[in-house]
From TrEMBL:
<feature type="transmembrane region" description="Helical">
    <location>
        <begin position="344"/>
        <end position="366"/>
    </location>
</feature>
<feature type="domain" description="Major facilitator superfamily (MFS) profile">
    <location>
        <begin position="26"/>
        <end position="433"/>
    </location>
</feature>
<feature type="transmembrane region" description="Helical">
    <location>
        <begin position="116"/>
        <end position="138"/>
    </location>
</feature>
<keyword id="KW-0813">Transport</keyword>
<dbReference type="InterPro" id="IPR020846">
    <property type="entry name" value="MFS_dom"/>
</dbReference>
<feature type="transmembrane region" description="Helical">
    <location>
        <begin position="87"/>
        <end position="110"/>
    </location>
</feature>
<feature type="transmembrane region" description="Helical">
    <location>
        <begin position="26"/>
        <end position="49"/>
    </location>
</feature>
<feature type="transmembrane region" description="Helical">
    <location>
        <begin position="254"/>
        <end position="271"/>
    </location>
</feature>
<keyword id="KW-1133">Transmembrane helix</keyword>
<feature type="transmembrane region" description="Helical">
    <location>
        <begin position="319"/>
        <end position="338"/>
    </location>
</feature>
<keyword id="KW-0472">Membrane</keyword>
<feature type="transmembrane region" description="Helical">
    <location>
        <begin position="409"/>
        <end position="427"/>
    </location>
</feature>
<feature type="transmembrane region" description="Helical">
    <location>
        <begin position="291"/>
        <end position="307"/>
    </location>
</feature>
<keyword id="KW-0812">Transmembrane</keyword>
<feature type="transmembrane region" description="Helical">
    <location>
        <begin position="185"/>
        <end position="205"/>
    </location>
</feature>
<protein>
    <submittedName>
        <fullName>MFS transporter</fullName>
    </submittedName>
</protein>
<dbReference type="Pfam" id="PF07690">
    <property type="entry name" value="MFS_1"/>
</dbReference>
């Protein structure tokens, strides 16, 4: 899962052992948690196949409701991450998971446009802080030289949630009983696992290395020395005190990274919320739609890990990020001009590969360049502002679909967002590798 930072033989042995132990102890559980999180966030795309007809939702209203999740997410993102830093990752992540699971299950109660929009907004409020909280949490455990691959491995839960969740969600649409339709059972059965996992968080996730009884003292000491030395190198020219919120928000780097991420989320969630309906429009059944919808995410899962590992190995972030956006734009552009089920699925596959390849390099670059003293607030702010793209992207697709009757034309704005983000990806200044003077990590 990891590779060494060069040092003495003793330090190298401690490093290998510590990174392997931490990786296998924490990352699989975090992958599972984010798998459930993302599934609960995007399963509305499958529910819409039945729900829109049953409760009377137009494409525009569905796009508005699917996207308004991110408005609630935006409003609570920074406060949630600051509370995580105050109360500890263990308690706060458990709280987030319990509340989002209950609200996700409550989506089965939707009766019309207002209840749909309202519950999606509440779901955004509840889930806010989970993803940036985990990104912040990973910085407590992994030096920067490991972050692109670790973030890539953690975020593989996103494409996997669509790869595995698509056929499951498609099959659940055929479930009925106790007076509930398939889309209602989908929300209930996919929401409850988050509530159960929230209990497991309380004993699976220590707040930090000092609280990890399973981490040997020598490995804990090595890790703390490494992270402290890294913080000293990366801190803004002698800044040791935590900056005010206003100082964090005024940082031009934050605005730049948020703008880059905006293009990613607009495309990512536009695809997640609407791809099931695009595929279904070719006349397929629910289960067949689920199987075909999983294809792009299978390829994206592999590309995501390999690209993050290559970014770490070459110590390069900007071009890895820009090229990912260009691949995304190419796939989306193909979706606007191609016709037929096979070509459209192929184009969507290219787009999905691009949108997930960029995740590891992006967050590695952002956490390397933002000041460590402001990590909690800056990561949350980038994610919060960037995720507004998750509101605009799905809404534009729905509005254009209603206005033109075409799904393919609705992808045009996403192409433009991806191209702008590709150009912005080359703006961040070149920075020295966080482990200056160290050998590049091997590709384990």
């Amino acid at each position: 899962m990891t590779g060494p930072i060069a040092g003495s033989l003793d330090d190298t042995a401690l490093e290998r052992s510590a990174m392997r132990r931490i990786g296998w102890r924490l990352v699989p559980f975090l992958i599972l948690a984010y798998f459930v999180s993302f599934l609960d966030r995007v399963n509305v795309g499958f529910a819409a196949i039945q729900m829109n007809h049953d409760v009377g939702l137009s494409a525009t209203v569905f796009g508005w409701g699917a996207g308004i999740f991110f408005l609630g997410y935006f409003l609570m993102e920074i406060p949630s991450n600051l509370m995580l830093e105050r109360f500890g990752a263990r308690l706060w992540i458990a709280r987030i998971m319990a509340t989002w699971g209950l609200i996700s299950a409550a989506m089965a109660l939707v009766q019309g446009p207002w209840s749909f929009v309202g519950l999606r907004f509440l779901l955004g409020l509840a889930e806010a802080g989970f993803f940036p909280g985990v990104i912040l949490y990973l910085t407590y455990w992994f030096p920067s030289a490991y972050r692109a691959r670790i973030i890539g491995i953690f975020m593989i839960s996103i494409p996997i949630s669509s790869f595995l969740g698509s056929p499951i969600s498609g099959a659940l649409l055929n479930v009925s009983g106790f007076g509930l339709a398939g889309w209602q059972w989908l929300f209930i059965l996919e929401g409850l696992p988050a509530v159960l996992l929230s209990v497991a968080v309380l004993w699976m996730l220590p707040n930090g290395p000092r609280d990890a009884a399973w981490l040997p003292a020598a490995e804990r000491d090595w890790l703390e020395r490494q992270l402290q030395a890294e913080a000293a190198r990366n801190t803004q020219r002698g800044q040791t005190e935590k900056p005010s919120m206003w100082e964090v928000l005024r940082d031009r780097r934050l605005a730049l990274f948020a703008a880059i991420y905006f293009g990613s989320t607009a495309s990512s969630y536009g695809l997640s919320f609407w791809t099931p309906q695009i595929v279904k429009s070719f006349g397929l059944g629910n289960f067949e739609t689920g199987l075909l919808n999983s294809i792009p995410y299978g390829f994206a899962s592999v590309a995501m890990i390999l690209w993050g590992r290559h970014s770490d190995k070459t110590a390069e972030r900007r071009w890895h990020l820009a090229l990912s956006f260009l691949i995304l734009a190419l796939g989306l552009a193909g979706g606007t001009v191609l016709s037929g089920l096979g070509p459209v699925v192929a184009a969507l596959t290219v787009a999905a590969v691009g949108v997930y390849m960029l995740k590891g390099p992006f967050w590695a670059l952002a956490t390397e360049q933002m000041p460590p003293a402001a990590a909690a607030a800056s990561i949350a702010a980038i994610n919060a502002v960037g995720n507004l793209g998750g509101f605009l992207g799905p809404y534009l697709i729905g509005a254009i679909k209603d206005g033109t009757g075409s799904f393919t034309l609705s992808l045009v704005p996403l192409v433009l967002f991806a191209l702008v983000s590709a150009a912005l990806s080359l703006v961040p200044g070149r920075t020295a590798r966080p482990d200056q003077g160290a050998a590049r990590p091997s590709t384990a």
